[in-house]
């Protein structure tokens, strides 16, 4: 029947399906753009629904009609006679009405109407909300404007105060005030003469007052402004005053005295202390005296002298280090002296035995490094800048937390206040070592001076954290009863150093245990974080070394995590770390105090009580000690030789000190740094953010001033495994 029907229309009927526009045969409202789930909003021209199409419109191609729709049309047409079909084609509205009667079209029109109503309703709701949105936007603009105005006002106030301080403490202002003091002394002197001549005071009183005024006069006396600025406006006056007070007139030590200059003040008082020490080494030689405030230091930059001081523990104690950091470390073994130090070191050292280190590589070092990789991956994908100094500091806090206490600080996920507290406390200890006046020894002042309040709060936080962790572990150990042996200890679910110390059943006070563990927490976290920071910095500045480190890690590990046994094969990577420790030692200075009079190599005499600074930075950067001392050359240390230390370099390399008081955690730190860096290199390539001004400051270790920002990029696993 269909063949007869279409055939009766002749050639014109056969061409009709291709005539007209290419719109689909069904209503526009039933269509949607490809890949979109949103309905097309009806336009005014299509608001008349299906009737807008011409009655003769039919599908332009089979691709517009689904099999289900075609079946529906066929079912509707198959029972119609030829006359009925002709009527559909000849009538003005018949074909349109026929299409509208089909169930799919009815359904589509219904859906279209519902979607159009929903769209209109949403539009009305949006229009109703627009005034509120505008109101909120205006409120935000007002808040931002207000905050900006307040910030600008505060900035202007700070600028005003800065100008006032600059005026108050400028060289000219200080000279003027000192001149006023001298004039006042002159007036008092004239008055004193008058009182004596007129018999108002006797000779004894006159002499006493005259001596006092004479001292004051000479103290304030100035050269004319046209001459070289007076030593009173330069730190050089401190050198002269301190030398006269602490050395007297008969200094036969043969040690030259360095003269501090005005530009050195910022570094001496809270900056990077080791930088002016290096400058003065180049001026005065490998040993010189630096006078600062009420004390003077002998600065040592010679390996032979450093060796003498560090190995003769009976002649040289911690001295000033203990004084300025007792507020933090208490009686911990890091600063303890004499029998207490001997006993505490003997108790702590066994906890760092080889079995423990081999276990902790996988259980702690690798797992924490993997966690850092996980946290860095989104930044690697997005290309965001990452402060790697902060990341490494978070990593090493998590490591020392698990290794020391079996406690996860999880600082890679959440900011831990312990990191800032440790840095604050260590910075305070360094500042105390160079304070012109040790006012912090007056307890009452520590309660009101902001810097001291901040330091005390930091120490309280650290101590509270350590005490809580000790308490939890003590409960576990006491519940177990019997002492465990070494093998049981390393295979236990909690092979932490704290557990080892408690399980040894040694008689030790809670305070002493706290101070010992706090020493390890601070030193272990701070040192390794800085090592990783500066090693990654040096590698990023030396692409050939970075490439070689990547190749070695890929070759040795083949995509798996490192083990304790792998350390001996990661030779180049280990030398990169030791070369980083040479260029950026942690700490950059070691402080000792002579307990008895002694003669140093070179016939330099020191008296009992003399404070000595061994500048590790100077020893490591001295051109007299190292060839190309300022260059990063990992292979200056023989790859086939032993890992460099103070013994096999004859104290030319002393990042962990030397002698009886050498750092007990040196192997722990090197292992941790090597594992962390190996896993970091396995997963990422990295480069410095351009135009960074990388400058140095110190706490107990060398930090960057403003962070170390890098871009990290994921390495292809295929290339890693292929290597």
UniProtKB/TrEMBL annotation:
Pfam families: Mod_r, p450. Residues 1-20, 27-49 have a biased composition (Low complexity). Residues 110-195 form a coiled coil. One of its GO terms (biological process) is protein transport. Keywords: Coiled coil, Endosome, Heme, Iron, Metal-binding, Oxidoreductase, Protein transport, Transport. It is found in: Endosome. GO terms for molecular function: heme binding; iron ion binding; monooxygenase activity; oxidoreductase activity, acting on paired donors, with incorporation or reduction of molecular oxygen. Transmembrane segments: none annotated. Residues 152-239 form the VPS37 C-terminal domain. It comes from the Eukaryota. Heme binds at residue 663. The keyword Protein transport applies. Residues 1-66 are annotated as: Disordered. Its cofactor is heme. One of its GO terms (cellular component) is ESCRT I complex. Belongs to the VPS37 family. Belongs to the cytochrome P450 family. This is Carotene epsilon-monooxygenase, chloroplastic. It comes from Nicotiana attenuata (Coyote tobacco). The gene is CYP97C1_0.
